[in-house]
Design goal:
296 residues; seven-stranded parallel sheet; binds NADP nicotinamide-adenine-dinucleotide phosphate; SDR family oxidoreductase; SDR_fam
């Protein structure tokens, strides 16, 4: 039985993680644990996977692009990390079963699931083809539900930890982000429901609302017709680095937090949305008029 000191915050006895030691167990906060990060061939997911490896976890990498995924895996192997990879579209349940099977075959257990894979958008609702709305929504909702559903029996065995990656744009809604915001808000609510419904399992269910973050230069989101386009303008000084965000995600897991809202802007949105919702809407409507490049 892993020592409760593993967690920074006190946790119920039922929430301790049982770790099966691996032959090549490394040292570090997450040593002896197995983590799966969806959408980890690039971006924040890759940096989160890297931080987990650096802190001793064995990690399952995932994405849809075999070449990019293989490149990331090779980079991690060269650094001496314990990793395997599995090409899987997380909106396909059979592919998610294969993804979880990869984790179990390689490492024998699963302790941490981070559902990070996501497609974003840069399109107003009125212009969006219905299928594009569905693609964005599916990647955020079923891309969260399916890996979790396939992983649940194994996470129950380890009394593991599940983190849904959401966004600060889910806290208040954002013009030109309808399907994305709806999906990110849905998973926040899902975490709350599962925390209650599965309390007896001792599994940790948490949500991290990420704010503006530096992106990979080749990151693309969908336009109204479903074509990949660069994301809208984000002021560089408002952006956290991917490593900073990854470290916050790991702290969230260690403390088994229910919700982490990243960045001062995120905290401000929570405050305004909770106590001054009309003011929040006025600010957004004003920025749409004056700072269109944030949205288009
Ligand atoms: N960057 C930000 O400013 C920001 C802000 C708020 C929230 N977030 C959230 O943080 C997370 C990571 O964002 P990011 O900026 O790192 O995005 P990213 O660079 O676009 O990375 C997303 C990853 O998910 C993978 N992916 C997408 N759809 C998938 C699917 N159906 N199955 C498997 N993999 C899939 C992508 O690879 P393939 O497309 O090749 O499969 C990619 O590796 C997302 O959940 C995002 O919503 C980011």
């Amino acid at each position: 039985m892993r020592d409760a000191a593993f967690f920074e915050a006190p946790v119920p006895a039922t929430a301790r993680v049982v770790a099966r030691p691996r032959a090549n167990a490394q040292t570090g906060y997450f040593a002896g644990l197995v983590a799966l990060v969806t959408g980890s061939e690039s971006g924040i997911g890759r940096e989160t996977a890297r931080c987990l490896c650096q802190q001793g976890a064995a990690v399952v990498l995932n994405g849809r692009n075999a070449e990019q995924l293989s490149q990331t895996r090779q980079e991690f192997e060269a650094a001496g990390y314990a990793v395997v990879s599995c090409v899987a579209d997380v909106t396909d349940y059979a592919a998610c079963e294969a993804l979880i099977a990869t984790a179990i075959q390689a490492f024998g257990q699963l302790d941490i699931l981070i559902t990070n894979a996501s497609i974003s958008q840069r399109a107003y609702f009125a212009d969006m083809a219905p299928d594009v709305f569905r693609q964005v929504l599916d990647s955020n909702v079923y891309g969260t539900v399916y890996p979790l559903k396939a992983a649940l029996p194994y996470l129950t065995r380890t009394r593991g930890s599940v983190t849904f990656i959401s966004s600060i744009s889910a806290l208040n809604g954002m013009p030109s982000g309808s399907a994305y915001c709806a999906g990110k808000a849905a998973v926040a609510n899902l975490a709350h429901t599962l925390r209650l419904e599965l309390a007896h399992t001792g599994i940790h269910f948490g949500v991290v609302h990420i704010g503006f973050t530096q992106n990979d230069p080749n990151k693309r989101v969908l336009d109204a017709a479903g074509l990949p386009v660069p994301i809208a303008h984000r002021p560089p000084r408002w952006q956290k680095s991917q490593t900073e965000v990854a470290r916050i995600i790991l702290r969230h897991i260690r403390r088994r937090r229910q919700r982490t809202v990243i960045s001062a802007l995120g905290q401000l949105i929570v405050l305004v949305h909770t106590y001054f919702p009309r003011l929040g809407d006025w600010i957004v409507l004003t920025t749409i008029r004056r700072l269109r490049h944030f949205y288009e």
